[in-house]
Design goal:
mainly beta; Rossmann fold; Immunoglobulin-like; ten-stranded parallel beta sheet; nine-stranded parallel beta sheet; 7 helices; globular
């Protein structure tokens, strides 16, 4: 009983996600945004929220905001399709990627395919940290519209942004309960979640709500768990909390492992559930769903947006790779307890969908590595827990090391190459301390995203470096840090970095950076430090999604 009370108290009192608390929210005046409502009569009955187009550099932007929008929209008096049902139907009709790319698809065709009266389109225009001269804050922005499938006329539309200063909590214009929830996620993720939830709460509250045909579904205000960013092994407990209307029936599911497990109402409106991981349970990217139902059967649901759950016993990798070795998704995920060393003469190949978690150290390559991910099944390398791992260190590896569609997350160095040769294509470097560091070697970076580094996105010293068709953004110290290197930087979006776009700290070497986008047509002189030629400059950002 004491343990149960402790768990409830910890979930309710630690990290705040939602709360009706005072704070400073830049640009808000305690009033809701004003939408364009073009049709208030004959509102639709059944609505589908389509995949949102991602116009941001945050790869999770569209998914996070769409789920938040769906969660709050489900409290209105419409019948809404589950997101997974929508996505399966769109993929079977080869329309999913077209809609997600922001291309036009007939609402009439979508209505017939999905069996709905209206669809909601959305463009996520911002989600992440914004660096300005006098402040740093987190921004979330969405442009959305509800369109009739029968007439193809717009029923409701709104474009809205909010700014939340670092450390602040958003106001709750919908009057969320003062109960607050704590879970083990990063500060950065929590801030993005708060921004997305506040944005969607405000926008959904402006949608015209038809009269309820039946009893309105009970409202859910928050749904959280203790599994984000962790590995839950057999014997561990997955613990869930749902905040909503009191006196209802709460359940949760984790497809395909468990379905509709009950939750207990420990306090009015606070529902708690738990599940002990079984020996055969295994999920690399599991997603939770919470449900709240009334006695009449009216129900609402909340799709978890905190991040995928990792469940199961991983395959432990040896400390040394002494011969050619191939890893694939079937036997994964893999775990490295200390360091993983690839010896000279050996090649490590990682096939699509491979996931490797590092407990503390990292991967040292003295032989060769081939990371062979695809767009649909990237290779993922990340820390097992909340602390950072060391990353990939290329140590005098002069063979052709290649990384294709690889995600490197939460490392001290995403890649650190010393006197080595590395080719990086279509990769994601996110939430690392340093993104890519090249010393006395050769590196080519193409079609990649380097974002949210605590220090610099890409650094080179006495090296040869080519960077093209990539995005370097939201890196706290700066975009590029270059010392005595031969560098070609072309056809990139280099913007919204904390200190500078490019900083050259030595006159030796040569840096050419033509045809890049610097955040605006005339970049501030503080963006370019040292001897570097940035002419000609692009007048607008490159739309990499449109060029794919």
């Amino acid at each position: 009983m004491k343990l149960r009370r402790f768990f409830i108290g910890a979930l309710i009192s630690l990290l705040i996600i939602f709360g009706n608390m005072s704070c400073s929210v830049r640009g808000l005046i305690n009033s809701l945004p004003i939408p364009a409502i073009l049709q208030e009569e004959q509102l639709p009955h059944k609505v589908a929220i389509l995949p949102f187009a991602n116009k941001t550099s945050n790869p999770e932007g569209s998914e996070t905001v769409r789920k938040m929008f769906y969660n709050f929209f489900s409290s209105l008096n419409y019948i809404d399709l589950e997101l997974a049902t929508i996505d399966d139907s769109l993929k079977s009709a080869n329309l999913y990627h077209k809609i997600a790319a922001g291309k036009d698809v007939s609402p009439q065709i979508l209505g017939q395919l999905l069996g709905v009266d209206a669809v909601i389109f959305g463009d996520v225009i911002s989600l992440g940290k914004i660096y300005a001269l006098l402040y740093t804050d987190n921004q979330a922005g969405l442009k959305a519209q509800m369109v009739s499938c029968k007439t193809e006329k717009v029923i409701w539309e709104l474009e809205h942004k909010i700014h939340i200063e670092d450390g602040d909590l958003p106001l709750s214009p919908l009057g969320l309960a003062t109960t607050v929830v704590k879970i083990a996620i990063s500060h950065q993720q929590a801030t993005h979640m708060k921004a997305a939830s506040e944005l969607c709460m405000q926008m959904v509250s402006t949608i015209p709500n038809p009269p309820a045909i039946t009893e309105p579904p009970p409202q859910i205000q928050a749904f959280v768990h203790n599994g984000a960013g962790k590995l839950l092994r057999p014997g561990d407990y997955l613990k869930i909390a749902l905040i909503g209307e009191a006196g209802q029936t709460a359940t949760w599911s984790l497809p395909p492992l468990v379905q509709a497990l009950p939750m207990k109402e420990k306090e009015p409106g606070v529902y708690i559930g738990a599940y002990r991981i079984k020996p055969r349970d295994r999920l690399v990217h599991g997603r939770l769903i919470g449900y709240l139902s009334s006695e009449s059967g009216s129900a609402s649901q909340w799709v978890d947006a905190l991040g995928p759950l990792k469940i199961g016993e991983p395959t432990i990798l040896p400390a040394v790779i002494a011969q050619n070795t191939e890893l694939d998704a079937e036997k994964g995920p893999y775990l490295v307890n200390d360091a993983l060393l690839v010896l000279p003469g050996a090649t490590l190949r990682l096939h699509p969908g491979t996931v490797i978690w590092f407990r503390s150290l990292g991967l040292i390559v003295r032989g060769e590595i081939q990371i062979l991910g695809t767009e649909q099944e990237p290779v993922r390398l990340a820390s097992l827990g909340s602390s950072s791992w060391k990353g990939i260190f290329f140590d005098e590896s002069r063979t052709k090391n290649s990384l294709y569609h690889c995600e490197i997350l939460g490392a001290e160095f995403g890649i650190r190459a010393s006197d080595s040769t590395v080719s990086i294509q279509n990769c994601l470097f996110q939430d690392n301390i340093w993104g890519i560091v090249v010393e006395k070697g050769t590196a080519e970076v193409t079609g990649s995203l380097i974002r949210t580094c605590e220090k610099t996105g890409i650094a080179a010293r006495q090296a040869q470096l080519v960077v093209k068709d990539s995005i370097i953004t939201e890196n706290k110290a700066g975009g590029f840090l270059l010392d005595n290197s031969l560098v070609k930087i072309e056809q990139n979006n280099i913007s919204n970095n904390g200190g500078w776009g490019i900083k050259v700290i030595s006159a030796n070497g040569r840096v050419a950076a033509p045809n890049n986008w610097w955040g605006n047509e005339n970049p501030d002189p503080s963006e370019i430090i040292g001897p570097v030629n940035i002419q000609p400059r692009l007048k607008q950002p490159i739309d990499f999604m449109a060029s794919d």
